[in-house]
Specification:
This protein is 31% helix and 9% strand. By secondary structure, it is of the alpha+beta class. β3 and β4 form a beta hairpin.
Length: 117
């Protein structure tokens, strides 16, 4: 799940490596402290993983989740978790773990950080 280093080794997201395809935002940066431009790039990447802006993903016969309509909506109100210590790398790990469920689930092993646990 980590990116390749220049020496050919692997770096894990929790130790500072970037998630595959993720924007160029330092993985050890606090998510709450990224610039609006960086947040926009993270929004594009995250929403892209889940099908794109405006897409509604069915979770079951009676529930669904809808992605942000556009980048501006995501930057203005998205990625605002109540955990000031959450890093970009931890967010990226959680985002990748949500792909299988199209955003319907937050697997605890990869996403407990977004809930400050």
């Amino acid at each position: 799940m980590g990116g390749a280093t220049s020496s050919g080794g692997s770096t894990g997201i929790a130790t500072g490596g970037a998630a595959p395809g993720a924007p160029d935002v330092p993985s050890d940066a606090k998510l709450a402290g990224v610039t609006p431009s960086q947040k926009g790039a993270l929004c594009d990447w995250y929403v892209g993983l889940l099908g794109g802006y405006g897409v509604e993903n069915a979770c079951s016969a009676v529930t669904s989740v809808k992605n942000y309509e556009n980048q501006a909506q995501c930057v203005a109100g998205g990625l605002n978790y109540n955990c000031p210590i959450l890093t970009v790398g931890q967010f990226e790990m959680c985002a990748l773990a949500q792909v299988r469920s199209r955003g319907c689930e937050y697997p605890d092993a990869q996403c407990h950080w977004v809930f400050c646990r």
